[in-house]
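Hi everyone,

Forwarding the result from last night's run.
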Amino acid sequence: MEPENETQIIEFLLLGLSEDLQPFLFGLFLFMYLVSVLGNTLIISAMISDSHLHTPMYFFLSNLSFVDICFTSTTVPKMLLNIQTHSKVITYAGCITQMHFFILFGVLENFLLSVMAYDRYVAICHPLHYTVIMNPQLCVLLVLVSWVMSALNSLLQSLMVLLLSFCTNFEIPHFFCEINQVVLIACSDTFLNDLVMYFAAGLLGGGTLSGILYSYSKIVSSIRKISSAQGKYKAFSTCASHLSVVSLFYCTMLGVYFSSAATHNSHSSATASVMYTVVTPMLNPFIYSLRNKDIKRALKRLFRRKP
């Protein structure tokens, strides 16, 4: 049988997490998923309904909340369905589709965090020119470019996986179709896939992280020049929430890949992946709302509004 014909009919098996804790995992992931979707939806609704939040910073934040909903929705619902039906099967088409959207929204989150860091850089380092630089046209253009770059990258990597053939091993030691794990079980040559993956990770992931670090180096330099302690605190508080989200997202994601590369334990990698695929999107609304008076005020108005 030709490999091309074989890959059209095969199904993968998602081994998931622990076999002994399935009922507990179902309840835990369902709770975290609902909290994530509800929290990010409230953030988006508050920003749409409150005209005071129609600023570049909150425009980017509403896009980030939407991406968080999509990001966690690519993996958790399928996992919950498999636990509920006592099945580990995911179709070949379903696996490629899940992989495509997971890469799309994962890379898009990187771009948006980098764009938000640039927004904070302009606000703190060039406050008098902020409204001129961060005009609506530029904000829309930055988000649009982020979407296009992320879509092209995910499309390229998905098409590269479609060229692979799979022979006998269809078991993926993960709770979703992560591209690294899918490429590992292929029986054809994966050198080109590995090359594209590492190049994309270095260019897109490393590039966005470098942009964030550069922006914050300039922010720290500007804050140090402020004479009053109150002025320093006010300047730092405007980017504290974003810095917390960036630290949480990148530390958990880099921790997962460095630990998996060091231990070569797929099960440990799958467990650690829960942090940046489920926990981080769930915590982002709390991080941005608990310390932000504007969002708190907008949420109160949203709940008090009569139908």
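The domain at 3-304 is CATH 1.20.1070.10 (Rhopdopsin 7-helix transmembrane proteins).

Cheers,
N.
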